């Protein structure tokens, strides 16, 4: 059946459907960036909570600022904002239709978005706008000179960025004497709450420093760690939803069974009782996010490039390749995990074993191109901080430099077998040009201060990187990985 509120009874034959009715729900959250991850994670937790009968006044209104958000709005509006979520484990595949989203605002309708943000019913503004969406440089600082931010700073009442809209929404609330909403980032960024606060306060300061101070003192930005592997949706996913579950969904979401959400309990305007749906509320989320970003996201960022260079398409296939699997294990055990501070109630070796199993899951169809995209934002957040930590301790970085060298080799643009690589990265042009030069002059790739920061100034890193890159060019990916595994790189 074609998914809609009217066909839920039919969908019930093959999928779990909401136990609540749409009429029971009212808005409490505005979410920017209605992509796949939001619908596999936050929306699923809320769906679980709403199924218990609780907190029906925390339904989601979607919002966005990009043309792709307008496309998503059209696709989801045609199915009453319902989403089919297919959860796949090694042993189980199940589909559920989730319904906590009740609307998506028209992209570009600034007035409607600000009016909604200023509605007293809205108590949380959340976002998944990707690592690149926060206007931060390699040091993690907010960049107020970015043209989009400077533009919103000059025209605060007609904002175009998510942060400009949030500033305008907060101002409208303050003018009405309303309590501010809580701003909840759900992106994979270290200290995501703090980074979001810096962006909102930093942008507000461009036009109204006193109001920026007010935001700094009065608005909560809880940090969180979010986790659930959620590949992009394509024809394959639409076909499985239709053929296996009988549901025609314009944009279904596929994900693994595992999910985790650890968050600081800092919601002065109130929040849904998400702990009833499995969210862990903790005093300090830093150890959890540190562990997840370095081990899981760092792991993804490490295997993406050797796999791409060996023409491997799926993540589980990369993990089935003995050299790539062993490369990941050695890198994590010898270089990444030893510089991770202890995490409450967590054994890091067990955590990594779980991650290996999750990466090996053959069902979810996560792809190497997805992991390889956006490296210019991901390497500085997921890999290079581990490199910097080890250098600061005077420890070696053979494996981590190899990751950087593999990334550089990838950006030359062809795999070891000579197949062309399609990049998906905002910085692709400059990285590609530098990677070509780096074949003869490896240092040409380390000139990007916004990516490599201080790491590029380390003699040891420069030496290791140059040697790894030279070996990759001379001997290829397979031989280089073998040398690394034999401690001969
Ligand atoms: P997606 O491509 O499906 O959606 C991305 C969303 O971000 C879209 O709505 C897009 O319009 C918006 N966006 C992108 N750049 C933006 C910008 N500059 N300003 C405003 N909005 C912008 O991707 P996804 O799978 O939903 O992942 C989004 C983010 O969620 C990731 O970058 C990551 O931080 C987090 N996350 C994803 C996963 C996963 O497995 N997919 C897991 C954990 C966390």
TrEMBL record:
InterPro entries: 6-PGluconate_DH-like_C_sf (IPR008927), 6PGD_dom2 (IPR013328), Mannitol_DH (IPR000669), Mannitol_DH/Oxidoreductase (IPR050988), Mannitol_DH_C (IPR013118), Mannitol_DH_CS (IPR023027), Mannitol_DH_N (IPR013131), NAD(P)-bd_dom_sf (IPR036291). GO terms for biological process: mannitol metabolic process. Residues 28-276 form the Mannitol dehydrogenase N-terminal domain. It comes from Agrobacterium salinitolerans. This is Mannitol dehydrogenase family protein. It comes from the Bacteria. Keywords: NAD, Oxidoreductase. Residues 284-473 form the Mannitol dehydrogenase C-terminal domain. The lineage of its organism: Bacteria, Pseudomonadati, Pseudomonadota, Alphaproteobacteria, Hyphomicrobiales. The keyword NAD applies. The keyword NAD applies. GO terms for molecular function: oxidoreductase activity, acting on the CH-OH group of donors, NAD or NADP as acceptor.
């Amino acid at each position: 059946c074609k998914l809609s509120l009217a066909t839920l009874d039919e969908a019930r034959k093959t999928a779990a459907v909401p136990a609540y009715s749409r009429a029971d729900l009212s808005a409490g959250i505005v979410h920017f960036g209605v992509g796949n991850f939001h619908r596999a994670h936050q929306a699923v937790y809320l769906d679980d909570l709403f199924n218990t009968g609780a907190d029906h006044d925390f339904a989601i209104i979607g919002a966005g600022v990009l043309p792709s958000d307008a496309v998503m709005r059209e696709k989801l509006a045609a199915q009453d904002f319902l989403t089919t979520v297919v959860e796949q484990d090694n042993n189980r595949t199940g589909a559920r239709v989730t319904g906590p989203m009740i609307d998506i605002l028209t992209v570009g309708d600034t007035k409607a978005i600000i009016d909604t943000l200023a509605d007293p019913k809205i108590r949380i503004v959340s976002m998944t706008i990707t690592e690149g969406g926060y206007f931060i440089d390699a040091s993690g600082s907010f960049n107020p000179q970015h043209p989009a931010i400077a533009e919103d700073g000059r025209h605060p009442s007609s904002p175009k960025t998510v942060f400009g809209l949030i500033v305008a929404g907060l101002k409208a609330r303050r003018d009405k004497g309303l309590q501010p909403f809580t701003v909840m980032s759900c992106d994979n960024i270290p200290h995501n709450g703090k980074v979001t606060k810096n962006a909102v306060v930093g942008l507000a300061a461009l036009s109204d420093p006193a109001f920026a101070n007010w935001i700094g003192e009065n608005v909560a930005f809880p940090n969180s760690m979010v986790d659930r592997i959620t590949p992009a949706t394509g024809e394959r996913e639409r076909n499985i939803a239709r053929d296996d579950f009988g549901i025609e969904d314009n944009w279904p979401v596929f994900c693994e069974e595992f999910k985790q959400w650890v968050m600081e309990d800092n919601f002065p305007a109130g929040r849904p009782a998400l702990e009833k749906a499995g969210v862990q509320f903790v005093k300090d989320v830093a150890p959890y996010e540190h562990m997840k970003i370095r081990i899981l996201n760092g792991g993804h960022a490490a295997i993406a490039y050797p796999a791409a260079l060996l023409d491997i398409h799926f993540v589980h296939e990369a993990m089935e390749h003995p050299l790539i699997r062993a490369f990941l294990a050695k890198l994590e055990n010898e270089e990444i995990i030893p510089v991770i501070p202890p995490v409450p109630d967590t054994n890091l070796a067990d955590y990594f074993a779980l991650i290996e199993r999750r990466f090996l899951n053959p069902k979810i169809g996560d792809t190497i191109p997805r992991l390889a995209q956006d490296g210019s934002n991901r390497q500085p957040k997921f890999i290079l901080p581990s490199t910097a930590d080890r250098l600061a301790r005077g420890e070696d970085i053979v494996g981590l430099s190899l990751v950087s060298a593999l990334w550089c080799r990838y950006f030359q643009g062809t795999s070891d077998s000579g197949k062309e690589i399609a990049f998906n990265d905002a910085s692709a042009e400059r990285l590609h040009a530098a990677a070509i030069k780096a074949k003869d002059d490896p240092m040409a790739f380390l000139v990007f201060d916004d990516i490599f920061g201080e790491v590029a100034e380390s003699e040891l890193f420069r030496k290791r990187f140059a040697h790894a890159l030279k070996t990759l060019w001379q001997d290829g990916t397979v031989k280089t990985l073998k040398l690394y595994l034999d401690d001969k790189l």
